[in-house]
Design a protein that fits this description.
Layout lengths: L14 H18 L3 H8 L10 H12 L1 H11 L10 H16 L5 H15 L4 H14 L1 H7 L1
Helix pairs in contact: 1-3, 1-5, 3-5, 4-5, 5-6, 5-7, 6-7
């Protein structure tokens, strides 16, 4: 970190920044109606953009691989909301959050939820953090059971 408290340019990329970047990549891919992994591959190693961390790559690849399972869970637990009614940014945040809850063994469940809520605060509407917290909280209460069957 620099003396101003911001990350140094070119230094290690923290997990929060990696999560945020993954959300941005998933959102962009959805807006372009393209594959997020393909979009990501075009950016990794590029010199004209900020570096992409290994954790961002892991999240984008993981969400893409498990998207059908993730979307089924979201549709089931987002009470009163279909996926196509959700704001696209919220959907990307939720997908990363569910992936971390169920498949990122080194991320405690409360951290996955808190990080998703924090990113929703940064990138989406005033109502989004509460919505993200509610959906991920419902999934989090059954995460152990889900991990056993997925």
């Amino acid at each position: 970190m620099s003396s101003t408290g911001s990350p140094k340019r070119g230094g290690p990329i923290g997990r929060r920044a990696s999560r945020k970047r993954a959300v941005e990549m998933l959102y962009e891919a959805a807006q372009r109606d393209s594959d997020a992994v393909t979009l990501l591959a075009g950016r990794v190693g590029s010199t004209d953009v900020d570096p992409i961390s290994d954790y961002t790559v892991s999240l984008v690849e993981g969400v893409t691989t498990r998207r059908e399972q993730i979307d089924e869970l979201l549709a089931e637990h987002a009470q009163g909301w279909s996926l196509d009614r959700m704001p696209p940014v919220d959907l990307a945040v939720l997908r990363v959050g569910v992936y971390e809850l169920l498949w990122a063994a080194d991320v405690p469940d409360p951290v996955a939820i808190d990080e998703a809520v924090g990113i929703a605060k940064e990138l989406s509407t005033d109502d989004s953090p509460r919505f993200v917290n509610g959906v991920l909280g419902r999934i989090g209460t059954i995460a152990d059971r889900l991990r056993a069957v997925l």
